[in-house]
């Protein structure tokens, strides 16, 4: 059911540019688009945070930085240092990738310790934890969401958009069922049109990570890649 107006959908979108070949002109473009359509945030690699923060200063659009991205295989200490650098440069939200290998090993103490390390560096800046749902089982997803819920992170997030799959309605619904109403769920990866965006919102997402934000709110279809 689509009961959403364009402004409501736009307000849920993290307008995303994470391609390694992104240049300054591309960053300028997505900032301009985010300001025009009043998206929730512009999400970039930490390299571009100073430029984005300067361009968005004084607006309602947040500056969001990914860290430990896209593999989730950096040491927690290194990821925490990236967090501090990004926040000092103007990041207002942080998206981290949890340790996927540790999750697959069943080493949940290490997964939790990594999130705790990053969360401590975030201080009052909201943290979103990416599960990379395409690589883990439903049991893993539940355990990861329980850890994030109990730690009080701001959001759990489905995907990086750089692995074997993106957000699914089933994963969003599962994640929402575990974290409850007080923690955000961010669907990301493969959201290219309004129909898909609405389906994710209906399933329980309240934030959408996508590079096709303009297409979504104007009725088009965006490109697949971030």
UniProtKB/TrEMBL annotation:
Q: Which SMART domains match?
A: DeoC
Keywords assigned by UniProt, alphabetized = Cytoplasm, Lyase, Schiff base
Q: In which pathway does it act?
A: Carbohydrate degradation; 2-deoxy-D-ribose 1-phosphate degradation; D-glyceraldehyde 3-phosphate and acetaldehyde from 2-deoxy-alpha-D-ribose 1-phosphate: step 2/2
**Per the UniProt record, which EC number(s) apply here?**
4.1.2.4
**Where found, per UniProt?**
Cytoplasm
Q: Where is the active site?
A: 95, 157, 186
Lyase recorded as keyword: yes
Can you tell which superkingdom this protein's organism belongs to? Bacteria
Predominant location category: cytoplasm
Name the coiled-coil region(s).
Answer: none
What catalytic activity is recorded?
A: 2-deoxy-D-ribose 5-phosphate = D-glyceraldehyde 3-phosphate + acetaldehyde
A Pfam family annotated for this UniProt entry:
DeoC
The keyword Cytoplasm appears for this protein: yes
List GO molecular-function terms, semicolon-separated.
deoxyribose-phosphate aldolase activity
Q: Which family does it belong to?
A: Belongs to the DeoC/FbaB aldolase family. DeoC type 1 subfamily.
Entry function: Catalyzes a reversible aldol reaction between acetaldehyde and D-glyceraldehyde 3-phosphate to generate 2-deoxy-D-ribose 5-phosphate.
Supply the name of the protein: Deoxyribose-phosphate aldolase
Q: Quote the gene name from the UniProt entry.
A: deoC
